Amino acid sequence: MKSNLQKHWWIITINGILAVLFGALSLFDSETMLLSISRYFGLLVLIGGVLLLFGALDLKRRQKDYVLMMTEAIIMIVIGILILVFPAQTLKVFLIVIGIWSFLLGIAKIYMGISIGREFKARYIFILGGVLFAAIGLLLLIEPLWVGSHLLKLFGFVFVVLGMLLIYNSFVLKKFKTN
Description:
Blueprint (H helix, E strand, L loop, with lengths): L3 H4 L1 H20 L1 H32 L5 H19 L1 H29 L7 H20 L1 H32 L4
């Protein structure tokens, strides 16, 4: 009797193909992919704001407190429109925020690695990870779009490899005999 996973091996194949396509696009046109991701995010925020607006209008119709929901909806709609109109600039701000977060996380990891003491031998992993996070954070602060596109290329490579593995494993799963 075939397992459910074996019956639907083709779903794994499709996931693999999509991963390879996403990875290839990220590798060969990372700037366009970054802007597309930014626009997609802006569209999601805009749609979420519009849906929230309908919810707030429904609350108003039922004479319930709607002001906070209406305010949030308007803010989300404005932010969604800004992201859609200015995708590169909002992406740059987003990458700078990630850079700040990464730098601060790196400093915290370095501090943890130093403070946990010499008896904990794996503390160097904390310190090394902290240096890596802090360095990526600094690079994102200095040149956010350039670093972002190169990080996306790295992720693209990983997606291509994982996608090929998914495709291969789906065909292995299809041929696998169970008793």
